[in-house]
Design brief:
Shape: rod-shaped
Largest sheet: 7 strands, mixed
Strand content: 15-25%
Number of helices: 7
Distance between the termini: 182 Å
Order of helices and strands: HEEEEEEEHHHHHH
Length: 315
């Protein structure tokens, strides 16, 4: 079937008009192909997000599209959509209720019993679950007070930091940072010197480590040898030896044996003292009168010197 130019032009114009209408509504946030109805409600406080569900008798039936604060009324306008097949009364109320500590709040449709159904675009009445409005007001007031104290603390902190930065004394932050930089520089120089020292003495350090390993091995061998030593037998022999020495010393102290008698016999000591004195006198007389003891005569002459016995035997 061949279409005339007029029909083609009419189809094109109608398509353009439809596309214009669809695009205009899409820019306004309305999807003509969407099979859901849009409704509105408002609250004194905002306790919802665009992720909050819209429920009826615990069932999720819609979603929140937009939340707007109306400056003129001082209220929060909530726009939400529900399935087009869902029918509920125009006098139904939208209840703001808490879902849990971590789940936030939700928007529930509390249906009325009359049969005057709500139409898309209607403004529905709202209510807040008892106790929630108090929590919301307390949260906002607490948030305000906490924010005020936080801002004051932040202001004091910034003032103190500014005074530290501008302080040129020894306690100032600039001086501390300068000292820290000098310390880091010194530490870097020290680490470089330490690395150079290790590099120059690497052979010596290696030898020292080798010697230490050898000594540790010898100590290990020595410890193994010490395990085989019978210390109890050695200590017993040493104890016997000490007992014998004690017996010997006891005998000496009691005057037993030759050494004991020598140590304890006073008469023997007196005789030794007399003999020692006489020997000393004999040597002295031998020096003074050698002719008495040595006779040298060529013609056999008689010695004229006679020996005179002293009166005291000790002379």
């Amino acid at each position: 079937m061949k279409l005339s130019r007029e029909v083609k032009t009419a189809i094109l114009v109608i398509s353009g008009i439809l596309f214009l209408i669809f695009g205009f509504n899409y820019l306004k946030g309305k999807n003509l192909l969407d099979s859901s109805d849009t409704f509105y409600t408002e609250f004194d406080y905002n306790g919802l997000t665009t992720a909050s569900p819209v429920t009826i008798k615990g069932n999720n039936v819609g979603k929140i599209n937009k939340i707007t604060y109306v400056v003129e009324t001082g209220k929060t306008l909530v726009s939400f959509t529900v399935d087009k097949d869902l029918r509920f009364s125009k006098n139904s109320k939208m209840r703001l209720y808490p879902m849990g500590l971590l789940d936030g709040n939700g928007l529930a449709i509390i249906t009325a019993k009359d049969e005057e159904f709500a139409k898309s675009g209607d403004m529905l009445q709202s209510e807040v679950e008892p106790g929630l409005i108090k929590d919301l007001s307390e949260n906002f007031s607490g948030l305000s007070e906490g924010l005020d104290s936080t801002l004051k603390s932040a202001d004091s902190l910034l003032v103190n930091i500014n005074s530290l930065v501008q302080d040129d004394s020894n306690d100032g932050l600039k001086h501390a940072i300068k000292e820290l930089n000098l310390t880091l520089t010194s530490f870097k120089t020290l680490s470089g010197s330490f690395n150079n020292l290790i590099a120059k003495n690497q052979d010596s350090l290696t030898q020292v480590i080798s010697n230490f390993n050898a000594v540790s091995k010898n100590l290990a061998v020595l410890s193994e040898d010490l395990k085989d030593v019978e210390f109890s037998k050695t200590v017993a022999n040493l104890d016997n030896t000490l007992q014998n020495v004690n017996s010997l010393l006891t005998g000496l102290d009691n005057g037993e044996g030759s050494m004991g008698k020598l140590l304890k016999d006073e008469k023997l000591y007196h005789n030794l003292e007399v003999a020692s004195g006489q020997l000393s006198e004999l040597l002295q007389d031998f020096k003074l009168n050698p002719k008495r003891y040595i006779h040298v005569s060529v013609f056999g002459g008689k010695n004229k010197d006679d020996f005179e016995k002293p009166e005291d035997e000790r002379q």
